[in-house]
Specification:
Distance between the termini: 34 Å
Shape: globular
Number of domains: 1
Order of helices and strands: HHEHEHEEHEEEEEE
Strand content: 15-25%
Mean pLDDT: 93
CATH topology: Rossmann fold
Number of strands: 10
Strand order of the largest sheet: 3-2-1-4-5-7-6-10
Number of helices: 5
CATH superfamily: Vaccinia Virus protein VP39
Largest sheet: 8 strands, mixed
CATH architecture: 3-Layer(aba) Sandwich
Radius of gyration: 15 Å
Helix content: 10-25%
CATH class: Alpha Beta
Length: 177
């Protein structure tokens, strides 16, 4: 899948795909998604299929699991995926995201988390943990922000990459965070 196809239709609610594109191209192994949706699942699934990579998508909402082909789960705590190269966190309830961010900090090479803007998004309290990671990059204009984090993969080559009106920046580049 080309970059243009993967990023086709990106908007303020799907800007996470910009970081997912970078993350999947910095890694070669398993891609795991917590929380499925039209803005991520079909793109990740197709990319992984084309690259012969393992893709696992988990969802706790039966309707969304049925629509996207994700594995329906009852309890996020019961999940134990291993050998994760890219983990995309975008599941409900959003308040759970901060706990999974910490749970998988040392288990995933790169974590991309959606709804990470400094204000709004129900204040999922994920930002308080960003300083625990060696690398932290973000993308966001209006609406939903997304953040890419890693302790093991140098993400600095992604800083300044753009798509339409979106530019990937280091967490402190804007001076407002």
């Amino acid at each position: 899948m080309t970059r243009d196809k993967f990023l086709e239709g990106v908007n303020n609610d799907t800007d996470h795909r910009i970081l997912l594109w970078e993350a999947i191209n910095l890694t070669k192994g398993k891609v795991v998604e917590f929380g499925s949706g039209h803005g991520s699942t079909p793109f990740l699934r197709e990319h992984c299929k084309n690259k012969q990579r393992v893709f696992e998508s988990y969802e706790n909402n039966k309707e969304w699991a049925d629509m996207t082909g994700a594995t329906l789960i009852e309890d996020w705590e019961s999940l134990t995926p291993t050998a994760i190269h890219v983990l995309f966190i975008d599941h409900a309830p959003g308040e759970r995201r901060q706990f999974d961010l910490l749970k998988y900090k040392d288990l995933a090479k790169i974590i991309v988390i959606h709804d990470s803007e400094p204000t709004g998004a129900g204040d999922y309290k994920v930002r308080q943990h960003f300083g625990k990671f060696k690398y932290c990059l973000e993308v966001g204009v209006d609406g939903c922000w997304a953040t890419m984090l890693s302790d093991t993969i140098d993400l600095s080559e992604c800083i300044g990459k753009t798509w339409d009106k979106y530019t990937i920046f280091a967490k402190d580049d804007r001076g407002t965070i």
